[in-house]
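Hi support team,

I submitted a single chain yesterday and got back a structure, but I'm not sure I'm reading the token output correctly. Could someone confirm the output below corresponds to the sequence I sent? I've pasted both exactly as they appear in my results page.

Thanks,
R.
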Amino acid sequence: MILFAAPSFAELPALPTPLSASDFIAVDAKKAELGRLLFYDKILSGNRNISCGTCHHPRFGTSDGLSLGLGEGGHGLGPDRVSDMGANRVQKRIPRNAPALWNLGAKTIETLMHDGRVSVDPIFGNGFNTPAEEWLPDGLQSVLAAQALFPMTSGFEMAGNVGENEVVGATRDRIDAAWPIIAKRVRTLPGYGARFVSAFDEINAPEGVTIVHIADALAHFMVQDFTSFDSPFDAYLAGDDQALSATQVQGMELFFGKAGCSNCHSGNLFSNQQFHALGLPAFGPGRTRRFDPYARDVGRMGETDDLADAYRFRTPMLRNVTLTGPYGHNGAYPTLERMIRHHLDPPLERAKWTTADLTLPDVPWLSSIDFVIQQDRIEMARQATHRDIYIPPRSDAEIAALVAFLEGLTGANAKAQASRIPEEVPSGLKVDR
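Hi R., thanks for writing in. Yes, this is the structure output for that exact sequence:
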């Protein structure tokens, strides 16, 4: 249990140190521009119908604007995304809210995903602890590059349904069997082969392109376009006392002071990179341990198999958070105000929560699973008892000030959707714009 003490303003901790380019992985422009094409190219998906950018789009703050997304079997973008019909229809909702991609290239980040299942770790001899274990290919340059590989092997995200294509078939044999298929698809396209030769010193011919190079290019693009420290708060840290409004300054003082927000949303990335149970409303298919017989989301425990980690999720970073709703690991709340109120009184907010709070595409054949967990009183009670945060109450005015401060974390480039989406990609497949 984390009990947040309420320091006086005299004890207000120092503000975070400003972020700078030196805090992030160095970017190679050629690799990044290659990564831009790959990020929006559906060639990386099993059925060639979904790209990284489909679910992590600048229009929705590098998320998708949905509580739980529709991956394979869907069409459209953001809240307009719907399921196809017939044999290729959506088989399952994406179990968790699509996380935003801001500042994931920070050098201090060693763990990614809501449950931390991709992390820097020497345990398997390839530098990372991931679902691929010892079968993760060697040579990945960052945890961000390692993470980029796994949506491609997820049937419900990008790989496709069983029997539909060679990529998903390969994953059923062994997870690493799919990546050479994807790499061959990419390198045999003339528009990609020459670009890889130009961007990577070790590649002398397109035949040398591997999934490691693809992942590395994707990581360089994400660091280049989704690094963000140009918000009013960053200007305030740089010495511009007028960058934040009076209400935002009040919210900042609460955030770093007696409200206790910075105990978890700490440092200049606004996250301690740890895992906490918030007791959010439960719904959706969730991510379980392999032997769980029913739909629920066990959080960090699914990675560690430690009961102490049940229902804990990684503390999200908060820059550009106003652009990335809905909020929570499952997108339970539509606004920051509602999410803050939940932090203050989880039992009350769980009781007030309804399915109308969700941005959830209607998929009738999944409705029997969407809320089945709420019929299990034992599981619901179990989840309610796992709570790590206890924060003193705040007034409506203070909550409004906290929301105003969070609005001051929105970067200018992110707000302007300055990341360029290519008009076309080498595969010739449609780009989701």
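A quick pointer for reading it: The chain has two domains: 2-20+229-413, 24-228. Let us know if anything else looks off.

Best,
Support desk
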